[in-house]
Specification:
This protein is mainly α. The protein contains four helices and no strands. The longest helix has 31 residues.
């Protein structure tokens, strides 16, 4: 069910999984690739001076982060932290969890600012 939901989300947002990849829709890489695509779309809208489109892409990023990345990345990071792993993998996963948490907080702060207006 999660994989089908993600595949539908990718299609709705303009991203198709490559038929040659061995990664499923619920793998981290396509999820981060979608976030990068949405960031690029948001940046392009900003360059065009289209604030409604910027808001729309920001909202899509926030919803995707809330409904997908923020639900499983912290749990995954905790599991990795609790195992005797060595090398770069534990540090990478900890950085990933921190990034997802920070990005989610930033997206929500931008949403609040948009709804209430900038403070003087």
């Amino acid at each position: 069910m999660i994989t089908a939901d993600l595949e539908a989300e990718y299609g709705r947002l303009g991203m198709a999984l490559s038929s040659t990849t061995m990664l499923s829709a619920d793998h981290l890489c396509p999820q981060l690739e979608l976030m990068a695509l949405m960031c690029a779309q948001e940046a392009e809208a900003g360059e065009r001076g289209d604030p409604e489109c910027v808001s729309s892409w920001s909202r899509e990023q926030r919803q995707f982060t809330d409904h997908h990345l923020s639900r499983w990345v912290p749990l995954f990071a905790a599991r990795v932290r609790d195992t005797p792993a060595t090398g770069l993998y534990p540090a990478f996963v900890a950085a990933l969890a921190a990034f997802v948490d920070h990005d989610r907080e930033l997206l929500h702060a931008l949403d609040r600012r948009e709804r209430t207006g900038p403070r003087s």
